[in-house]
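Narrative of accomplishments. A recurring question from our advisory board has been how the design workflow behaves on a single, concrete structure rather than in aggregate. To address it, we present the structure tokens for one chain from the evaluation set, followed by the sequence designed for it. No filtering or post-editing was applied between the two.
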């Protein structure tokens, strides 16, 4: 459903999502790169565990929360992709590392 415009060009960067390589263009947000690569589900809800996809793409809805390089609660739509970064789906509602209530699982 979502795909890149045909005339887009730029320096390619590669990162990992759930351990799998994803190619993006420099300047992409993590959310845009993942959607363009066909990955719609970026987080799982705390109560039902259902999958959620980015919605607003401008930092308002928080549906795009992911873990980036081990740090949870990162908004994928506001984070510029960087070569070598490791992105994982956020599962549940973890606190920040070292914070009371931290739940990395
Ligand atoms: S998609 Fe809405 S905050 Fe990221």
């Amino acid at each position: 459903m979502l795909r890149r415009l045909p005339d887009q060009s730029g320096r390619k960067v590669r990162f990992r999502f759930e351990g799998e390589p994803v190619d993006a263009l420099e300047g992409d947000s993590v959310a845009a790169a993942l959607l363009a690569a066909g990955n719609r589900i970026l987080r799982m809800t705390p109560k039902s565990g259902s999958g959620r996809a980015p919605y607003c793409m401008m930092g308002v809805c928080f549906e795009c929360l992911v873990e980036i390089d081990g740090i949870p609660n990162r908004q994928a739509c506001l984070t510029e992709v960087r070569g070598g970064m490791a992105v994982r789906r956020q599962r549940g509602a973890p606190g920040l590392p070292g914070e009371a209530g931290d739940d990395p699982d």
